[in-house]
Each structure stands twice: as structure tokens, then as C-alpha cells.
Amino acid sequence: MLVRLAFDQNEPQHACVALRRALQDVPATEVELHNQLDYFSPRCVNVDSTRAVGTASRDSARRDSTAAPTVRRDTTPATRASKARYTLQVAAYGSKADADALAKRLKARGIDVRVAGTARMFRVRIGRYETRAAAAAAARELKAKKIDAFVTEIGGDDK
């Protein structure tokens, strides 16, 4: 949440420092959390996250308020984007019953939803999209319906 908040507040260096630290500290067994954090990684391509972020007064003295931040939002190569498929993930559960219960509630709201995975973790996913941009647009539409989702690539366990 800290990473997302920092990006929302147009503080890419803060976000990228927090992201780098989180990726180092989160155990490899926390696959879903790593997926959520990895979603933000492309935004840090041109951001220096190796040095500590200074105090607000020092940062504002160094920062040119008219300069645009040097953050690349989408670093997916064009050749890969045409082949890649994306989906929206709303949750992941250790039990299939829990994932199915959420899927049932979402279906009752008229949302085309599926449960991906044949073993622990069971991911509740919505839609299939050709581009990350199309998936992100769909995520914004879901947010208007008070459903949080993040864009992820479709893996081998999600057919």
C-alpha cells in the first residue's frame, strides 16, 4: 500500500525505495504479494532507488518543479505486448472453497469471473485482455464498482 500511495502522490523515488525494500524482505513463498509488488516494478526503471530519500526540504530544494518525472509507465516491448495476455486478479486463497465463494458472489453481480489454479493458491480472476492498457482500463471500471483488482499476466495455470 505504501508503494501505491507514493506513486499516487507522484513520489516515484519514495515508491521505488519502498518497493525495492519490500521485494527484498518478502519471503519467496509469498507469491501473490510478490506478484502485486512486481506490478509496480516497470515504473521504477528510470528511478534511482539505491539512495535514501532525503528530507522534504532538501528534496524540494533540489527538485525542479517544472520538470516532468522520468518514470516510464509501460516498459513492455511492443513485440511482446501483441502476444501477451493479461487478466485482472481480485484475490487469492489457500482453499478452493473460499475462492469459489468469492467467485459466486461476483457472478451474482454480473461479473464474468473464474478461479485459476489447480493447487494452493487459488486465484480469483476477471477477464482476458490483449494489452496491459486494456486490462488497466477494465481495472478502473471495476474500481468504480468498488472492486479492487490488479493487472497480471495469464500463466499456465489459467486457461
The domain count comes to 2
Query: Got a strand count?
Result: 4
How much helix, percentage-wise, in residues? 40-55%
**CATH class assignment of the largest domain:** Alpha Beta
Q: In the CATH classification, which architecture of the largest domain applies? A: 2-Layer Sandwich
The overall pLDDT, averaged over residues, is: 77
- The number of helical elements comes to 7
Shape: globular
Largest sheet: 4 strands, antiparallel
What can you tell me about this protein's structure?
Helices cover 43% and strands 15% of the residues. The chain is globular. Strands 2-3-1-4 form a 4-stranded antiparallel sheet, sandwiched between helices. The chain has helices spanning 2-8, 12-25, 31-40, 56-62, 78-81, 96-108, 132-144; strands at residues 86-93, 113-116, 122-129, 150-153. By secondary structure, the protein is of the alpha+beta class. The protein has 7 helices and 4 strands, in the order αααααβαββαβ. The model is unreliable at 55-82 (pLDDT under 50). The protein has 2 domains: 2-62, no CATH class; 80-153, Alpha-Beta Plaits (2-Layer Sandwich). Helix 1 (2-8) packs antiparallel against helix 2 and helix 2 (12-25) packs antiparallel against helix 3.
